[in-house]
Amino acid sequence: MIRPFRAALVLGAVALAAACGRETPTAVGGSLLTGGGARTFELVLDAPNFLQSDTTLTGFTKGASSTLVLIVAQGFGGQVNAHALARFVSPANTITVLDSTGTSKTDTAPSFFKGTVVLHIDTTAQNGSTPVQLRLFRTAEEFDVNSATWQFRVDTGNVHTPWATPGGTVGPLVDTVTWTPGQDSVIFKVDSVTVAQWRDTLNLGRGALVTGATPGSRLRFLSIGFNISAHSSIKKDTVVTSSTGNLGSTFLYDPPPPKPTAGILYVGGIPAWRSYLTLQPDLMTRTMTCPASAGFSCSFTLKSVTVNFAALVLQPAPAGAWQPEDSVRVLSFTVDTSSLVALSRAPLGASLGTTAPALLPSLFASPPSAAPASIPITLLLGAMAGDTVRTGTAAGQSGTIAILHNPEPTLFGIAQFYSRRAAPALAPKLRLIVTIAPQIQLP
Amino acid sequence: MRRPLVVLALAAALAAPLSPATSPGGMPAWLRTLLGPAPLAAQSLLATSGLGVPTPPLDARARALGGVPTGLFGLDLSLGNPADAADVRYRGGMASVQPFSRSDELGGQSASTSGARFPLLRVLYPTRRIVFSLGYGGFLDQSWGVSSTGVSHFGGDTATVTDITRSVGGISQLRLGASYLLSPRVALGGAVGLYTGNVTRDVTRDFPDSTHSDFLGFESRTQWGFHGPLASVGIRADIGAVLRVAGDVTWSGKLSADSSSGAARGRSYSLPLQAEAGASALLAPSLALSVGGTWANWSKTTFSGCGSLAICTPGSAAAFVARDTRTYGVGLEYGGTHAGVRTYPFRIGYHYAQLPFFAPGDDVLPTEKSGSVGMGVRIGGSENSPAAQLDGAIERGSRSGGATPAALSEKFWRLTFSLAVFGR
Lengths: 443, 424
Fold this sequence. Notes:
The structure holds two protein chains of two kinds. By secondary structure, chain A is mainly beta. Chain A has helices spanning 2-18, 192-199, 378-384, 388-391; strands at 39-46, 51-58, 70-76, 80-88, 95-98, 104-107, 111-121, 132-139, 152-156, 159-162, 170-179, 185-190, 208-212, 217-231, 239-243, 246-254, 264-268, 273-279, 288-289, 299-300, 306-314, 330-335, 348-354, 373-376, 400-405, 414-418, 429-436.
């Protein structure tokens, strides 16, 4: 009788002890802690104090044909013209109809008599606030939709065949429509002759060209589609409308964007631009003085404190005719320079952060914006301090940051920022939020 | 022998995962895990002062009797007086656990917390004439945690900031003792031992705003290990059949605090000479009155110019001072309830203690007071050497200390459970 009771006592005591947990901190008592606690303060470094070099490189996307949007512009910003170019899939020569008995039948002799070309407008883009007149033409020369440019209708490998008319040689005008702000699509009517031309697969010059007719306009749209209608030969009163799909679409633009000047960094555009900024190698080990906002005098190195937050602060520059047509989402990455390849081929490492919210196109209007862009790079500084768990690879150790638009092939305009060669007030800055604590010691 | 080791092993195995993960100095981690835990959870925010809050190694019976440290009738396994174990006839072991809950009020704000600690573990091995014991119990508790939330401004940005400052650890005492019955009425005892323990201090800062979710947090940690020698002698005497008196003195050497991580600097501290005295009188066949107290000359312990979280500036005034302390306790025990081989004693008590450490500007010197009730179950054997004994005590108390008008006021509930099991 005693033994089981003893065992029960032992188990009961163990169970009770097992239920005990760690004390939680109390919300009172801070005043009992004599001396200072952690201090967090902001530190802003000018370009000469943190930036070793910066540069802009291009060529990270193929061209307008790989872009996920289409542009039509007429003298935008006094400079930029853009025409959309597409070639449609030739529809099948049959249609399916229900006969008088309700049975589905294949009609091998339909009569294609009309069509429509639909442009889906990107309503989130900055398309302006005035109506824009658009024109649809038939193309009049053979072209390669994947390589065509403003100057060349075929521009691939060793073949560079110019357009007779730069910007695309056009045939007859098919239709004219007017887009009004707020519309999410425009529809061109296509006549039977044009339908027949676009159905003729032996016609290598078949295609559609859309131009703008309103000076100063620029429209961005997401897709171009062709719908074709046919009368049935089996059932005379039946009209079948079908969408054909695209063999390819692109846009031709002129002039090409200018190369960045010495004081400017580019992000976005076609082919995509990326900017690279390299931090000074002794940034983490240089002795710095605590600012007055810290509340006490101290000196530190970035390696000895905790960097709670770090961001590149870039000043948007006026982009003129190359002002982005949509919001810009700048994404920062580490760059792996360990393989010693050229920077343009150095692989990107870990993603560091993105501008939040996205940068509005108006920031890149003239004059310089009062709202600089903040691009987080906190994890990079953690890796440079030796905390490789945060970025995990040698990419974190190179001290080079790549900034690019995300996703890259979706921006025709160029987000421009002032580089370290600009005036000091406009040059990049490094904003740091740092926490430092006095050494905790026994009394 | 097996059963006491089961008790001890279970308690140690349970406590080992709860102990601090590292053993920065003094006792190796494996040995500390084998022998038992360091105090885990703070019983008071007053532990932020000096070297912490004293945590005497008393069992639940002594707690119920107002913290009387020695001189109790019957089985008394508190660690202080090595002579108290002289009557034990069988090998055994005991363990204590002490959950608590506490509410603090400071500067018009209040908060509550709870936790648990293991104040005492002991194994006894009687031989023909001498009872040997190995005990591990509390000495100073240095565990506390404080959180605060505020707003910080960085340039044009404003962020909510949550700080948690936490200290985990304390100092325990490991004693190897020997008790000897000089005569049926007089017992002598001696013990040698070691102060040991460690403390880890963390400061963390987080930014809980969703608008600053990309801010990384901050953490700073330093650690120390403690070690220092001790020696104790004690005596217990029965005067007639109705009176028992006892006393002991403990000498302590220098306590060394060795740094083990971060930029922690080592320290050493003088520890006090401690004396305990107690007496019990039989008022009626089953009713006993116990009184006792302790004295420790903590005033010999000095501190440098470092607060809990201060930049240590050479030559600056000491952040804390220490004073000699006294504790007093009184208790009544009624042992007249029996059921077969089991006895169910009931106990009440009252306890008052001065706490040693405070800041120089404090006008409310730190003290602790508590009232207690408790009972036990004694199974088989005799009063001095039962087969098993389970005791429990509930205390309701308060502490205060600090500088008016922002002195700290605490109220606490403290439960203590002790289990002793002996082989035959």
